[in-house]
Design a protein that fits this description.
The strands form two sheets. The protein has a seven-stranded antiparallel sheet. By secondary structure, it is mainly beta. The chain has one domain: Elongation Factor Tu (Ef-tu), domain 3, CATH 2.40.30. It is elongated. The chain contains one helix and nine strands.
């Protein structure tokens, strides 16, 4: 079971992935953002001027970069057994779950119902010929439902 502050920074859970159990991910430091736009409507008054009416807050949007790397250390200093490929494949498994709302828990422990808006891999090859490892930094965008 993934636990924020122990073996991950955020969790995702959905009915079609990992039997519905939460999966934890580590974030690239400084990459997490949450925005919540306001719904504002411009209206023309009888005098011909424009006034703005706020209709409330919009849905939250989350963006962050997941570190898909080998030999990540848990926050308590122990080694995490998950490989770079496993982190990345699990993330894309969530992305491929069409028409399924997900439960996202942010680094503060707040829970939201979300859907994927976008997912982008940045591949990081390193090493010498035939002795190389692939790692990923995967940018995720989620929208509250």
């Amino acid at each position: 079971m993934a636990t924020i502050g122990v073996d991950c920074n955020v969790t995702l859970a959905g009915p079609n992935v990992n039997g519905g159990a939460a999966v934890g991910f580590y974030l690239k430091p400084g990459s997490f953002t949450m925005t919540q736009p306001r719904h504002v409507q411009a209206r023309r008054t009888a005098a011909g001027t424009v006034s703005y009416v706020e209709n409330g807050l919009g849905k939250r949007e989350f963006a962050f970069v997941v570190l898909c790397r080998d030999k990540i250390r848990n926050l308590d200093g122990t080694d995490n057994a998950t490989t770079a490929r496993q982190w990345r494949d699990r993330l894309w498994e969530f992305y491929a779950s069409l028409n399924a709302g997900l439960t996202f828990v942010d680094p503060l422990g707040d829970s939201y119902r979300v859907r994927f808006a976008a997912c982008e891999d940045r591949i990081i090859p390193f090493g010498k010929a035939k002795l190389w490892v692939l790692e990923w930094e995967t940018r995720v965008e989620l929208r509250e439902v």
